[in-house]
Amino acid sequence: MTTPSIVVKGLHVTRQGQEVLSDLNFQVAAGEVFALLGGNGAGKSTTLLTCIGMLKPSAGSVTICGHSAADEPEAVRRSLAYLSETASLYEHLSARENLRYFLELAGTKPDPVAIEQALDTVSLQADARDRRSAGFSKGMRQKVAIALALLRKTPVLLLDEPTSGLDPVAVEEFNRLLITLCQRDVAILMVTHDLFGACEVSSRIGLLRDGHLVNQFEASRDVNGKLIHVDVNEVKRSFAGREAA
Amino acid sequence: MTAILHIARGEWQHMLRTRLAVTIIVMLLALIAVAAASSAQQLVSESQTREAYQREAEATFRSQPARHPHRMVHYGHYVFRTPAPLAVIDPGVDPFTGRSIFLEGHRRNTAAFAEARETSVLTRLGVVSPAFALQVVAPLLLILLGFTSVVRERERGTLLQLIAQGVPARALVLGKAAAIGSVAALASLPLLIGVMWLSIRHPTEALPALLVFAGHATYLGFWVLLITVVSALASKARSALITLIIVWAATTILMPRIAADVAATAVTSQTQTEMDILVQRDMRVVGDSHNINDPGFRSFQDQVLEEYGVDRIEDLPVNYRGLVSLQGEAEGSAVMNQYAAELHATQRRQATIINLFAIASPYLAVRNLSMRSAGTDLINHQRFLDAAEAQRFELIQQINTVHANEVLFADDSARSVDHESEQRTRVSGDFWHRLQDFNFTPQPASDRLLAALPLGVVLALWLLAATVLIRRVARKAGEA
How far is B480 from chain A (nearest CA, A)? Predict the structure, then answer.
């Protein structure tokens, strides 16, 4: 494993008097997809919000590319791209305009050629690029959001339930994009309750329950270095067993 | 700073691409521009009309033929108030208080021909001054334009997206405020142009005009910040809109009425009818100056006879009837002035109470600041009434003096039965040329500025409170 881009160490987070995360520990290295799997209320979104620096830990720490999320949130945010569940875009702007706007706000000068390349990479249809994003499907919005991450060249990508509401073709396209990002050494932390999707694309999977990381699974690689997916049934058994317990 | 400008530009882009926002901006600008243009046109024509009427009334009075002086006392004369230059921005109480007064003997008439009473109900509702547009309508339109500014980002998930990519929450909130503020600035532009134009035409009005502009700019600035704060605090756009509409209605519709009711309850004043009855009662004590034998003037008669050293009024070197008229007018005026002074003092106390409500309503602060600076408030109306009364008293006493000095007592006593005597009681029309021009001037600019200053401080405090609030909210907006 290379130097971890995301380090979560002994993390405790309390919200409205309730401990939502308890002694959470994991790391995500560059080029790795770590999926945090869990049901509703397990603490998945809280983990992401803490990584962004929008929630302060009551104990422990989150470090992104060497910066503490609690103490240096702005430096952390410069290092990451965040893709929300809804893949929100400005509906009155086109795909290109959305990218330009977000890039300007990130302090990056928008380069039209680079924007076209990024949109090519994410395979957004040419006729959709100048259309207002109000009519975009979630898959199309996600493509624009991934294009933004590519353009910003951030070393870390945080994904919140990225495949929920996507059709199988869109999921496949999305997974292909994640692999592209991994090949560019982006560390990806994905929170999801989609067991199959997580197993399909993740290098490692962590099972999150009631704020605790209860189990971790690692994908192996074959002799050619190709990822051998995490066994869905193994994760399912562990998940079911923990539920029963 | 760059992020704030980017956010502001983004918000402008959103406004321009949203039909509702474009409609609101166009409506706002059109309303202000139309209000300014129609108000300016109305004021110019009003000024010309009133000046023309004033000169005509003066010419009519001066051109009267030889008459008995007391007939001229009852013939009377009109004085008109020329609108203050800044009435083009804020007509204040002018449309409701009347613009002319009929000056005659024995009576202190109140102002008549109020615009609001003369026009039809529909026209009355249709008249919008720039001050009204900026004080009442502009905040409402700014609310409709800006209530979603921040909460929209939260509802659609772009807020988290922006914060997560390192856009400071402060820049986001201030950028939104800057965008709404730029629309408010655009809406204030006709006012600024008007203020500059007025300052060139009437240099003495430059400072009050500037204060009127500064007051409105501060007031709109307060609304811009409040709209952004509420939008940033709300979890749903609908709740932001409801909150802001409630604040708008409470401060601009409800509070002025509450303030007026509290003022009327705390400082009770007589109605015009009640006051008229009391004046008549006291005037009866003074006596009827048309009747030289009225018991009210018995001691005056003794005093006059003693002063001139004669035993009978017929032996006086002056016309006793004229003297009684002079005395009756002086005593009657004193009675009427006393009641008027009490009424004015009551109204001023009520106005002070209403001003105190500026602490609870920025609308009241800007409304009263604007009227005071413009010279269109109650104080200036009272000043007009007093100036007209001074003119009336001067005119009537001049005529009464002519009556005393130029008409023989014998002729005066016999004029109703003897035609020749009656002819001799008519004094030359040349006397009516002594009528002085009526030139009412509003309170000096320095006095108006001084009076408006406390309201300016209250408005500044409202803006300061909103600034403190937005700083706190901007810090919180970046937290989950």
Answer: 5
CB B387 within 8 A of CB B439: no
pLDDT over 80 at A42, yes or no: yes
CB-CB: which of A84, A101, A106 is closest to B10? A101
Q: For B81-94, what is the mean pLDDT?
A: 87
Cβ distance B441 to B200 under 8 Å? no
Query: Residue ranges of the domains in chain B?
Result: 2-475
Q: Which two tokens stand for residue B336?
A: 């009427």
Per-residue tokens: B473: 């909210």
Interface predicted TM-score (ipTM):
0.86
Contact across the interface for B6 and A101, Cβ inside 8 Å: yes
Q: List the one residue out of B392, B440, B439 whose CA is nearest residue B77.
A: B392
- Tell if the CB–CB gap between B164 and A86 is shorter than 8 Å: no
What residues of A are in the B interface, CB distance below 8 Å?
A: 49, 52, 54-55, 73-74, 77-78, 80-82, 84-86, 88-93, 101-102, 104-107, 152, 158
Q: CB A88 to CB B2 under 8 A?
A: no
Beta bridge partners of B101: B79
- Structure confidence at residue B224 as a pLDDT band (50, 70, 90): very high
Contact B165 A101 (CB under 8 A): no
3-state secondary structure of A12: strand
Residues B22, B20: Cα–Cα separation, whole Å: 5
Residue A106 in this model has a pLDDT that exceeds 90 = no
How large is the average pLDDT for residues B253-269? 93
Residues of A in Cβ contact (< 8 Å) with B166: 74, 77-78, 106-107
- The DSSP code sequence of B343-369 is HHHHHHHHHHHHHHGGGT-HHHHHHHH
Count other C-beta atoms under 10 Å from residue B249's C-beta: 12
| A chain contacts of residue B168, beta-carbon cutoff 8 Å | 74
In eight-state DSSP terms, residue A131 is S
Would you state the pLDDT for residue A240? Answer: 66
Model confidence at B114: pLDDT above 70? no
User: CA B246, CA A122: separation in Å to the nearest integer?
Assistant: 47
Q: Would an 8 Å CB–CB cutoff place B13 in contact with chain A?
A: yes
Q: Do B161 and A88 touch (CB under 8 A)?
A: yes
pLDDT at residue B270, as a whole number: 80
- Residue count (chain B): 480
- Whether residues B160 and A78 touch (CB distance < 8 A) is answered with no
Beta bridge mates, A221: A227
Q: Which of the four pLDDT bands, split at 50, 70 and 90, describes residue B124?
A: very low
Q: In chain B, which residues have their Cβ closer than 8 Å to the Cβ of A80?
A: 164-165
The pLDDT-based confidence of B122 (bands split at 50, 70, 90) is: very low
Strand arrangement of the beta sheet that strand A156-160 belongs to: A80-83, A156-160, A187-192, A33-37, A204-209, A212-218
Report DSSP letters for B233-256, one per residue.
H-SSHHHHHHHHHHHHHIIIIIHH
Q: What are the pLDDT digits (tens) for B439-455?
A: 787 789 999 999 999 99
Q: Which chain A residues have a beta carbon less than 8 Å from that of B161? A: 82, 84, 88, 102
Other CB atoms within 10 A of residue B202 CB: 15
- Amino acid sitting at position B388: A
First to last CA, chain B: 24
Report how many Cβ contacts below 8 Å link chain A to chain B.
70
Q: What is the pLDDT of residue B142?
A: 96
Confidence at residue A132, expressed as pLDDT on a 0 to 100 scale = 93
d(CA B451, CA B469): 29
B400, amino acid identity: N
- Residue B480 is predicted with a pLDDT of 63
Residue-level pLDDT at A223:
63
Task: Show the DSSP H helices in chain A as ranges.
Answer: 44-52, 73-79, 95-105, 112-121, 138-152, 168-183, 195-201, 232-244
